[in-house]
Structure formats: structure tokens, C-alpha cells
Amino acid sequence: MEQKDDIYYIEKVKSGETNAFSYIVEKYKEIVFSIALKVLKNREDAEELAQESFIKAYNSLHTFKGNAKFSTWLYRITYNSCISEIRKRKMNFASTSEIEIKDESEELNLDGIPAENRAQVIKQALDQLPEDEYTLVLLYYFEEQSIEDIGKVTGLSESNTKVKLYRARKKLYTIISNIMKDELYTIL
Predict the structure, then answer these.
(1) Nearest by Cα to 107 from 118, 116, 96, 117
(2) How many beta carbons lie within 10 A of that of residue 149, not counting itself?
(3) pLDDT at 5 over 90
(4) Segment 68-88, tens digit of pLDDT
(5) What is the pLDDT confidence band of residue 178, given thresholds at 50, 70 and 90?
(6) Domains of the chain by range and CATH?
């Protein structure tokens, strides 16, 4: 259904109804911004790059063939734009600003963490991941992208995507465990 909705609006835009692109922006603005924020680690730069990503997508919409999901295509534009921006600026990474985590974070099976603390612990742990691992986790767990689609976004092979996602999960588990130990230690 998601892909059909996207295609419907893409075709409207291609046929001259440019206002239909606002549906696409509204649907994907949060995840595009989240990817940009995690990679660039600066809210203003991420906002600017997210806007630029939508402009690039709009200007290149005629090249979208529909072989992959539109979301995959858009995330790839965003990710590549971020990497290009980093290379261009050769910037030093600063601390991340807040990243919104949706309720889908419950899927990570964090039974040992009280429900009211889960989002906070997950956010804290995600902030500690390198941007490439963060992107993999975000796309797989929060955006429910397939391994194949994630590979297309990041430019990795499917097997390399699986390996890197596995390592990111292990690292995330270790980080969460350490956070929980620290919290328990401060309580005692």
C-alpha cells in the first residue's frame, strides 16, 4: 500500500501537479531529518540538508524508475548528500541533538527496562553508535526497511549489510547493558 501511495503521488508530480509532492515531504520528513541529523550531528545543518534532499529528489523524480521503493531511493539521496557534505566540509563531529524515537522502539525486546524508560535508554544508546551503524539500525528497526533496501541506501552488499547490522545490534546491546548497569549502580 505504501509503495502504491508513493507511486500515485509521484505520477501526479510528473504529470505537472507539483503540489502532490507535499504528500511525499510530509510522509518522509522525519526520517530524512533523523538520518541527516545523525550523520551531520548538527540540527541546523541537518534541517538544511533534509530540505536539499527533498529538492534533489523533486528535481530527479523523472529518473525514479520504481525498481526499488521510493523511500529507499529518497534515503539514499539523503545519505549520499550527508556523506558528500561531510567530505566537503571535513567537519569535526559535535554532539547530537535530540532525535525523536517513535513507539516502534518497543520491538527491540527490552523486557528488563521499564516501559517509561525504554525510549530514553534506546535514544541514549543510539547516540553512542557511529553514524553508519545508527543508520542501519534506524532503517531496519524503525523504518522496517529490508536488508536489500538498506544495502541500496548505504551502497553495501546484502551480506555486508547483514554483518554490519549484526555488529551494530551487538554493540547496541552492550551499550544498553552498560547504561542499565550504571542506572542500577546509581540507584544502589
Answers:
(1) 118
(2) 22
(3) no
(4) 889 999 999 999 898 888 777
(5) confident
(6) 1-97 (1.10.1740.10), 101-188 (1.10.10.10)
